[in-house]
What we know:
Radius of gyration of chain A: 24 Å
Radius of gyration of chain B: 19 Å
Order of helices and strands of chain A: HHHHHHHHHHHH
Strand order of the largest sheet of chain B: 6-7-8-3-9-10
Low-confidence stretches of chain A: 48-55
Largest interface: A-B, 18 and 25 residues
Distance between the termini of chain B: 43 Å
Number of strands of chain A: 0
Number of strands of chain B: 10
Mean pLDDT of chain B: 91
Shape of chain A: globular
Strand content of chain B: 15-25%
Order of helices and strands of chain B: EEEHEEEHHHEHEHEEHH
Oligomer: heterodimer
Structural class of chain A: mainly alpha
Helix content of chain A: over 70%
Number of helices of chain B: 8
Amino acid sequence: MSSATWRPWIASLLAFAVFIGVWHVLTTTPGGSGPGVDPEYARLAGQSAQAQQGAAIPSPAMVGKRAVELLWNAFDRSNPNNVGIAWHLLYSLGRVLLGYIIAVIVAVPLGFALGLAPGLYQALNPFIQVLRPVSPLAWMPLALYTFKDSSVSAIFIIFICAVWPILINTAVGASNVRAEWVNVSRVFGLGTFRHITHIIFPASVPMIMTGMRISVGIAWFVIVAAEMVGAQSGIGYFIWNEWNNLQISSMIVAIVLIGLVGLCLDTILAGIAHRLSFRE
Amino acid sequence: MSFLDVRNVTMRFPIKGGREQFVALDDVSLSVEPGQFVTLIGHSGCGKSTLLNLIAGLTVPSSGEIYCDGKRVKGPGPDRAVVFQSHALLPWKTCLENVMLGVRQVFEKTLSAEALQQKAQNALKMVHLEHAMSKYPAEISGGMKQRVGIARALAIEPRLLLLDEPFGALDALTRAILQDELVRIVEDTRSTVVMVTHDIDEAILLSDRIVMMTNGPAARIGEVAVIELPRPRDRIGLATDSRFSEYRQQLLNFLYRKQRHQES
């Protein structure tokens, strides 16, 4: 392996080591900085302020120990009040997947319709522009009121936030197919169906996939917040629950896991996009 | 009436943000007989590609009419196949699939699936690409892509073949090889061809008639040269042919003395 390939890895590891080192020093030095828990709050939570004082932000070793515990019992569901973290991640992934698939099913055909019928696009554009910037969480109370179920609400929230990038990218992709490809279709006299299936659709695949990749990132972003409100399972619920138990270590482990799962989702989508897109 | 009849065609384009219009072509008339190879030559911006697009039906003239084989041209159609300058192959289809797209559209009502396949393969064989049928455009060279473009156009057996600077993007050697192939194919198939180029030698080598266009705006047909060189033509023989030099002289005179391009 050439030096150019391993040098960035060394630098990454070094940066990580420095980060862990600083974290360790800051959290293990007696009387060190870092916010302590308000004694009042700790008393209310039924714990002694003294016991929590030094552990406000846990040291890397404590987080590591907690990570091993959580991963060891990841699939444990013997105790309904203490379901393993893997199940929470799977609940979240399931909701994201459902909302996301519904978003794709709705947004891709609608996007094509908008892209191919400029009049329709102009008619619907004001609604899209008004709904698109609304924070998905603003929908949450309305969704809970309407669906009376936190899981369905979370799926709805995922749908409503994942639908816009796919919709807009599909519409832009379908309406901006290169003129020379459209001319090929016109010269050979392709009918509407073949024009869409052989020219417009394959030409827009890269744009659609970009939209889908953006959407999956947003969906994974939003599920954590959506599950903090009202849900009884999922990784967002897990974090909120651990916060209520003042299990800071668990929260940090969950944050790292959320990041890793998000990375996996993006990598999978990038792989699919690469497979489906044409090369020039 | 000739096979292709362009009658008093004027083409105006609106200028962005203005009420005036840009006149690209001004009252152009042209007729082409069956089996003729006609070349439109002129400086860039003279409207020669505009005229080709009008004949293809991709754009509609502001005034005037175009007739092809007795029928008024109202839009594009497979009776007038186009070879595009930028090859315009669909990158998500293999070479064979690219050719098949047009073949299926034109012949699927009259031919069996195997016959359609055979027709597309024959077209690729004609341009010596039988080995690249299952390759994607990204996997072949620029010259090969343009050959697929020619095969795709010829496979649908058009009444009129339109070539828009087909070799403009190729290097000189590849260009010469493809020109020789085009000479052979056109002589074999007796196609009627209208080609746009700005290459003088290419025009003389391939054409029966060369239509020289004046500089735009409001381009017109300046002169027409009838090339009476015997066919089959070969470039090595022509290099020492005195008539070839005379035609060359005539074209150079028109393009670089009478229509010297006004570029800063």
